[in-house]
Amino acid sequence: MGDMTASKLYFLSLMTLSYIVGELTHFLINTTSRDVARGVEFGEKSCFVNASFAHDEDKEIFECPESKNETHCETEKHCYWEYSGLGIQYQVLAGPAFILVFIFSAVFLAVLSDWLYDKLSRTIMLSVGTATFSTACLLMGLASSYWQLVILRMMIAAGLSVCRPVSGGLIAELFSASSRGVANGIFSWGVYYGYGLAFVFGIYITKADVLGYGWRAPYVLAALPGLVLAILLATTVKDPRQKDTEEKNQSSRDGRAYVRTLAKSFLSPSMLILLVAAFFRHTAGYCWAYNTRLFFQFYYPEFDIGLWTFCASVFGGSFGVFAGGFFSDRLVKSLGLPSRLWLLSACTIIAAPLAVGTLYFPPPGAFGCLILYYFFAETWFA
Description:
By secondary structure, this protein is mainly alpha-helical. The chain contains 15 helices and 2 strands.
């Protein structure tokens, strides 16, 4: 912990806060999808109950969600036909529009990192990335068409793809091996705080109807801290780049050697197994993350999930990462490097039935399962 100086902690704080804002902009569409769909008019429509309709509690009335078409829905006085936030257009906006750009942008930056190493400050790269996803988020709050949302969502992905690789490299040079794990752990909390805050912003700020802007207000308010952080990253911290030798510069430009090394590492059996595991894990994870509020809105419309989801993400996810790193480090000392995978496998097996419980049990029991699921599943990042 000896190298945890005030200046380095300040630098780490800026990177972590930038990551939190980035993940907030990433997942905000999940928590505002129904309001955005109704404001911009896209996706599927469904039949909903008019909450202001007064009826005799002793008299049985028609269940509005059972209606499958507009004509039938509107024959019932207590029902109305409106956009649901579901459908293929929402799934494209939440998933492929973000993921495809994020993947290719991240790979592009990783491959070019050696060539950019001595040409561009990484703090400037991080600042530009933060400004990009913040500006795109702000503009989403002003969007008036579906395709504007798609393009801006792609911009958020491009900006956010800078954060993790660039910040990881900066942390590796800022902190020694003795404190690097703690620094990485603090930075990794960004995804959990960002995801949790998306529910706070998307649900409560939308309900507050700030200045009459409804769902648009959380997008604007979420973007403003990112713009401030982008300025601070560009003006108050410097890239701690170490002095390179001529040999380092020469090897970084040897494209063929770089490609051979990359291919050799990527095609190793352990890397391929991890890649397949990550594919399935993140497919399930993003399917849940992009549809969490829609799931509970459909099956448990009266239950307020905002603070429950925030707590599940922050406490379950954050402590899961910490526990995974803590226990895996100790297992490695006594059982060797493969024990990290043993711990990961055991925690994944334990997490699986908890994921089922999240879908099976009604809230708040579902959130008890979700907190425990995050605790075990997020050891993956250790």
